[in-house]
């Protein structure tokens, strides 16, 4: 048991160094390498839970669920206050894209329950000022593969608009019929898909996420749509990429 707790702490520390590897090209490789390294302790964890009597299992899950949040909280408290906001993003990203997906990757029922409880404890302890949500490798990998208009989609969802709303249709046509037809446009799209999923994930962790998305809609998305309607596609491209760069500098 002590060895499992220690190794879970080591897992958190090691994968924290790979947060910047959360990009479409590198994520699968980083995840697979990390998972293979820590698979023995994850298997031991599954066995421990499987061998524990049902009446004692909830208590064990509760004890295990405290390990990483308590460890991360103590680490955060040792940091200067001026560094905590930046580190908070890295801590939450580490949990969201590596630690929690590691724990539920095997689809083991007990580990799934543990991973969900860890997320709850993390938020209860307020390890960071951000909100952590439950996540899985499959969902993240599918997000990279699907190549959606990540930020536009997230904005529209938070504005309670449908996936086929007018703004989404206009921006998708802009991507497919304008950007995809030039080398520069295709390069922009390629670069965008490297960073956009991470931006959206971090935005969703913000306590004022709804207000941020509303601002993005009013300041960037709606003006972009209007520029496209006016035939000013180059100006739309410049404005949208300004939004992406601003978000990139602020959040990742």
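-> sequence recovered:
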């Amino acid at each position: 048991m002590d060895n499992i707790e220690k190794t879970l702490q080591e897992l958190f520390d090691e994968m924290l160094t790979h947060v910047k590897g959360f990009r479409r090209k590198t994520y699968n490789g980083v995840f697979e390498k990390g998972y293979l390294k820590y698979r023995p302790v994850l298997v031991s964890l599954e066995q421990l839970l499987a061998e524990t009597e049902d009446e004692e299992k909830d208590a064990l899950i509760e004890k295990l669920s405290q390990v990483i949040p308590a460890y991360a909280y103590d680490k955060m408290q040792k940091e200067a206050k001026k560094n905590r906001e930046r580190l908070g993003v890295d801590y939450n990203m580490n949990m969201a894209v590596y630690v929690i997906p590691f724990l539920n990757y095997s689809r083991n029922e007990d580990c799934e329950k543990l991973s969900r409880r860890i997320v709850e404890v993390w938020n209860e302890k307020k390890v960071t000022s951000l909100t952590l949500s439950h996540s899985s490798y499959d969902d993240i990998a599918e997000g990279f593969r699907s190549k959606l208009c990540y930020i536009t989609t997230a904005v529209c969802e938070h504005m309670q608009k449908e996936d086929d709303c007018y703004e989404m249709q206009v921006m998708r046509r802009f991507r497919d019929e304008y950007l995809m037809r030039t080398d520069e446009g295709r390069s922009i799209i390629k670069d965008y898909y490297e960073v956009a999923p991470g931006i959206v994930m971090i935005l969703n962790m913000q306590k004022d996420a709804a207000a941020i998305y509303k601002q993005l809609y009013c300041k960037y998305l709606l003006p972009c749509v209007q520029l496209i309607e006016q035939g000013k596609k180059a100006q739309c491209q410049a404005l949208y990429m300004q939004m992406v760069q601003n978000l990139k500098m602020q959040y990742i």
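The chain has twelve helices and no strands.
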